[in-house]
Amino acid sequence: MLAKVLCRSFTAHKPPVRIAVTGGSGQISYSLLFRLASGALLGPHQPIILQIHDLPMMQQALRGVVMELHDCAFPLLHDVIATDVQSTVFTDVDYAFLVGSKPRGPGMERGDLLKQNGEIFVKVGEDLNKYAKKTCRVITVGNPANTNCLIAQSHAPDIPKQNFSAMTRLDHNRALSQLALKAEVPVTSVSHVCIWGNHSSTMFPDASHVKVSGNAGHAKFTQEFIENEFIPTVQQRGAAIIAARKLSSAASAANAAIDHMRDWTFGTHGGWVSMAVPSELYHGAYGVPDGLIFSYPLTIDGSGHYHLVRDLPTNSFVTEKLRLTIDELQKEKQEVQHLLKK
Ligand code: NAD
């Protein structure tokens, strides 16, 4: 089924940018789509076309979302295409936000989630390869995000590997915020923080290089605080939000997805961000083997190319944390080996 809604006529001269969002009637999309349409990603002068996908049984709900987008009369929203056909959603897109995936149900093991969602991402990769622009930038949000991204990327050989990423920006933002709260400073005063590895409880939120207002460290960031409060709080924040809201984080996840893509497009002006990207781009740096989608500290230049922050000093604590998250990602990869294109 294809519902096409033409939004109000648009007078700007820039050609519109096409943005695909999957899982369009879900929680994250209910925030993400409206922020995208308001210009939060590409600014107030860039018209966009939203191409939104969800399953056939979700089309009625998706129609409601499209009606609401229409009712906002966003000046930048040139067109909305809502569909259950994946080839349509990816046609000619410049950006792909891969949000659609099955949530973990009661009694479901992580392995079941890996398998079921992994299968979704085989077709996603194939369709991106066939229909998206070869310059398309992809962010994988649906969990298990790193391994889903690996599967999609393996099925899209015509799109450069470096255009595939998985989201650890929510964890990065959580880390910045926890440190700012502890130091009692604005979040903008905290920098040089990163997330290593998998978007899961083995991720390593690393404050070893933190700066507050440009100065290294802070008296309140004791080893005791870092190990017993900061790291577990960031690692378990998703579960804490589910316990409080009875629903997983949605607005903050949508916000992080936009932060991730905006910085990837416009650059970080020397600042560090965390993104999970193909490890073979960095050939064993920090002991990470090739063939994983791994979160690193990156800077992004003004042309939208990301660069690894290299030669950071490590110690046995850091090495052990990295080993745990590398091991988990390798295990996940093993479990979905049959879904990866050789
Ligand atoms: P949700 O359940 O509200 O929405 C998911 C959407 O995906 C639904 O509309 C559903 O119909 C769709 N979907 C399900 N199976 C599909 C399939 N086979 N093909 C296409 N679409 C399908 O979930 P949500 O809260 O929006 O979260 C979406 C995903 O993002 C989840 O996997 C969640 O765990 C993940 N997440 C990731 C992060 C992160 O930091 N990387 C943060 C929060 C949530």
Polypeptide structure, described:
It is a single chain. Helices cover 39% and strands 18% of the residues. The chain is of the alpha/beta class and 342 residues long. It folds into 2 domains: 16-166, NAD(P)-binding Rossmann-like Domain (Rossmann fold, 3-Layer(aba) Sandwich), CATH 3.40.50; 169-338, L-2-Hydroxyisocaproate Dehydrogenase, Chain A, domain 2 (Alpha-Beta Complex). A 7-stranded mixed beta sheet has the order 1-4-3-2-5-6-7, with helices on both faces. Strands 8-11-12 form a 3-stranded antiparallel beta sheet. The chain has a 3-stranded antiparallel beta sheet with strand order 13-14-15. Strand 5 (95-98), helix 4 (110-131) and strand 6 form a beta-alpha-beta unit. The relative contact order is 0.12.
Notable characteristics:
single chain, 342 residues, alpha/beta, Rossmann fold, L-2-Hydroxyisocaproate Dehydrogenase, Chain A, domain 2, 2 domains, seven-stranded mixed β-sheet, three-stranded antiparallel β-sheet, 10 helices, 18% strand, globular, disordered N terminus, binds nicotinamide-adenine-dinucleotide, oxidoreductase
Concise account of the structure shown:
This protein folds into two domains: 151 residues, NAD(P)-binding Rossmann-like Domain (Rossmann fold, 3-Layer(aba) Sandwich); 170 residues, Alpha-Beta Complex (L-2-Hydroxyisocaproate Dehydrogenase, Chain A, domain 2).
What portion of residues is helical?
A: 25-40%
Indicate the CATH topology of the largest domain.
L-2-Hydroxyisocaproate Dehydrogenase, Chain A, domain 2
Domain count: the total is 2
| Low-pLDDT windows of residues | 1-11
Number of helices: 10
Radius of gyration: 20 Å
Oligomer: single chain
Name the average pLDDT.
Answer: 94
CATH superfamily of the largest domain: Lactate dehydrogenase/glycoside hydrolase, family 4, C-terminal
Order of helices and strands: EEHEHEHEHEHEHEEEEEHHHEEEH
Present as ligands are:
nicotinamide-adenine-dinucleotide
Class by helix and strand content?
alpha/beta
Quick one: biggest sheet?
7 strands, mixed
Distance between the termini: 33 Å
The proportion of strand residues reads 15-25%
Q: Given the C-alpha coordinates, what overall shape results? A: globular
- Order of the strands making up the biggest sheet: 1-4-3-2-5-6-7
SS elements, strand count: 15
CATH class of the largest domain: Alpha Beta
Overall CATH architecture of the largest domain? Alpha-Beta Complex
Domain Lactate/malate dehydrogenase N-terminal: 17-164
Binding site for NAD(+): 54, 117, 141-143
Family: Belongs to the LDH/MDH superfamily. MDH type 2 family.
Enzyme class: oxidoreductase
